[in-house]
Fold these 4 entries.
Entry 1:
Amino acid sequence: MKIYYGIIGAGGHGREVMPIAKDTLAKKIHCDKAELLFVIEDDIETHFINGYRVFSLEAFKALPGKKYFNIAIANSYVRERISYTCLNSGMQPFSIISKNTVILDDCHIGDGCILSPFTAVTSNVRIGNFFHGNNFSNIAHDCLIGDFVTFAPGVKCNGNVHIKDHAYIGAGAIIKQGSAEKPTIIGQAAVIGMGAVVTKDVPDNMTVVGNPARAIERK
């Protein structure tokens, strides 16, 4: 039975992730029974991207054989919707972890994560499902991160930070360390702007920018 590994999303992030996926799956795809390919939701306009076959999501679901998927799409709510579609179709998620990612002691990382080059997850960290950790992201000790959270490149998340589902942390943002008794909390669907320095809790659905980070109204 043939095995397919689909990267859902062929935009910039998907094309960045594909070589990491190839490296992650090197032993599995170097045979005729496994193939790594791109999957897009819409009707396809090209049959190959960067040398990989491209399928629509419906065509991917219809392929005979066992299918695994990962979702390289920045919008966390789109990730969530597609993940349910794939799981309900009997597919299984697989994680993509760069070989130079550092993961230390007693960490748990959920299904379908992407850890890009030069990311670090230190000790006693808990990360939910379908997390994106882009290049040079750092997650320090005792952090608790929910499902469908996105770290843009260069995020510095210090110890004892709790980040709820669907939060987005912009490139180069720094989150102040909390404590075991009082962790720094980033609320559900909160947005931390690029380069922001977060020194206190951020409520659900709030966008903060600047140094120190302050709330702005969403339009």
Entry 2:
Amino acid sequence: MNCVLALGFFDGVHRGHGSLLRRAVEVAGELGVEPRALTLDTHPDQLLLGRTKFLLSTPEDKERLMKELYGIGMMSLPFTKQTMLLPWDVFVRDVLAGQYGAKHLVAGYNYHFGHRGEGRAERLKDICRELGIGCDVMTPVSLDGIPVSSTHIRRLVAQGAMARARDFLGHPHRLTGTVIQGRGVGAELGAPTANVPLPADWQQPAYGVYCTKVRVWDGGAYAEYNGITNVGLRPTFGPSATPVTESVLFGYQGSLYGRTVTVEFLDFRRPEQTFPTPEALREQIRRDIESAREFFTVSLSPS
């Protein structure tokens, strides 16, 4: 397969990654070949350091974001001990040019590859010249003087600063998952509730209530609803063993159990709380819904 490859882990598919992906699509159009983003199936820290790396995107969301925002497909390279030990020049020659048929490579200024990360931007340019393939090394992208990075965005998400995280991402922080059985409070309020477990390695937002957009998928198509989402352990009814997102969708009718939904986090409203009675919780949910409806009315109003 002849292609142009954008190289990186692309966690969050943020604005900095966008510069690589747009360039790959542009060059692929000029060369008449397919653009592809080549990522790893495991973050290197998982294997190198033996610890969980909290990520902004599940593999499924990463792939969807690339396609939706930049029109580029994603390929995932297994990151194993064998991959990790490949010399940098062998990785470019045998894997990128040989296995994937790359005619042009696009990487970030801080892209490291090969054994011990010995492959750097200058080495990538040099070997591409030797192989007769094109190469672009993209410069850093900053916002308000702050470099756009997955590390900085993870910090914002952990604080619940969703509007600011969206500025750096170029899209809302999101989670796609399958709806599981909940405790039925939403149904009592006359609105379906979509409960989605949080993956163990996903960067959780601060526990609390958010204004959200929720996509309900049907094959490759979806319907989108405004809503509110609680992230946390639902302490009023006895804390859950693991955190979940619990969303109330405005205007949705029908069962959501077993459906695939994407929750997009837009605005933090309040921290998660323990309420003295179920009635107190229901009253607070009503106030949350009211507050969220006001948020969407204001945010959707023409400026």
Entry 3:
Amino acid sequence: MIANARMYAIDATTAAAWRVVLEWVGRRAGVPFDVIDYPAPQPLPELWKRSDLGCAFMCGYPFATSAPRPTLLAAPVPNPATFDGRPVYWTDLVVEASAPITDLHDAFGRRVAWTTEDSQSGWHAPRLLLAAHAKRLGAPLFSASIGPLVTPRNVALAIAEGRADMGPLDSYAHELLRLHEPALAARLRVIARTPGTPIPPLVGASGMSATAAARVRDALFAVGNAHDIAAAREALLLSGFAPVAPEAYEALAADARRADALGYPHIA
């Protein structure tokens, strides 16, 4: 079976650390993984449909709306204090650090970046936050919509390089960026945050056997106390993994419908 952590492999260092963790999980579970490279812009939906998928990160909105759903395994628990020891995350709306933008209202009329239209953190969460403003103002909020940029790092680069004025960053990816690319992270400033939601989980194929899934879950739950991968955990700002119910992600689909009902189907 294959494994992949592209969603939170923001650079070569984090990709190598995820390989260490996923290979350890496979050995511990007795379900050895071939940890594959699947770099952007290759489409993640194609990865999530693979019948040999053993363990990969999947965005919560596509998980909630997939049919059939992949097998839910576990969710990461980032270790920064702001995550409160829970498998949650949110979207940081960021601007260039020296830009004369202090809040969302200052960003209106400027250029907004986004990742992909099936992304919770890079599309749906900011869309819901912005929907009420769009309804109140009755006009497009932004002068240009810059995307799809696919990854949070590409959004960060677009803002730092002046190609966009505001954009969404997955909060866990943002913390990894602060740790591993501090010069880039220092060029960004948070002006707003969306409410917290369940963090993207690790999943296996929809047809993954119950026995294999249980073994992989048990191995994932053991990651937090495994001394031999402590360095990889630290590089990933990872406390470990926690159980999460499929129903937790259904709120993301409901939020998307709320934005639709407010008449804001696209970030514009």
Entry 4:
Amino acid sequence: MDKFDEEVTTRKHLLPSSDKVLPAGYTHLVVILHDEKTNDIPDDLKRVPIIVHPRDSVSKDYIANNIKSNMKSVGEDKWVQKHPPHRGVGVIVSAGPYLDYVKLKKFIHEHPGCKVLTVKHALPGLMKNGIVPWGCIVLDPRPITQKSTHNIVRKDLFNNIDKSTNFFVASMTDPSVTAYLKEQDVRLWGWHAFTDSLRNEEDQGAQIQNQQVTLNEDLGIPKGATLITGGTCAAMRAIGMMHTMGFRDLHLFGFDCCREEPTKEEMTETTGDLEGGETPKPKYIQVNVKEASYWTTGELLAMAQDCEKVFSDPGLDGVLCFHGENTMVADLWNIKAEQDNRIKFKGQYDG
């Protein structure tokens, strides 16, 4: 028994998990090596997934005031509603640094009439490359004069816009953004991004039953209004929006969720609110997908998590197509494709 205890102590490996068990706690896996020729387990088994728990960038009261203001600023007949499914081609452009404009232009040329929906950070690059998007989705509850998560003053992102572009502004968007776009006389539309902040206070945090929620009546959102679900950023909500608009042929460009290696100066940057009691953490994170290593941030990692969920959504099978290579999300898409091929092969093999 003493010999067994010694082997367990020296030749065991704990693989942590976030899988919950009832009534409480988590389950983990212990690997004990019996083969004396084997001294360690594969590195990929020892990797621990980084899980990001996103939160709203401003308070619920701030969001509520934004919604109340935008409900008055956007016309009653200018809110996105659900449309029947169709086979129109939709292109969603995120602001990944490895966006290939040549391939994007080629795709647009080969699919005349396709609708290009971009996020605001990708808008300047598209305009510079002669691509006038059909729409721009805006989801930002913070003032237009402040810097974005990409360290760009938000107003500067709208320096070069085309009045043929439809601007889809979330009701929680800061009124300063809405007012500025109205001053530019753009085609302005509103939409409601579902978050827990929209629900009655007593329902917030509770599980949603039968896809039905009770909204806070003080917000002024009419009963039965279309709510766009999705993820933590505008690019992910764009998928839900275009699906709500009836698109069943969607193509994703610029969904990278990674960047070049940070400089020494950038490596000193941190996130966290000291006044709020948070411990500062490095802004830039290095993560691995299979054997590839990527640099990312908390916000981008949250988006990558959203992509994993979307890629695994059976309701989007045959609807989504990812374009891009040599990025973190490209690897996630390829992993899902490999899993799908194995499942399909097994199904064919089983008859």
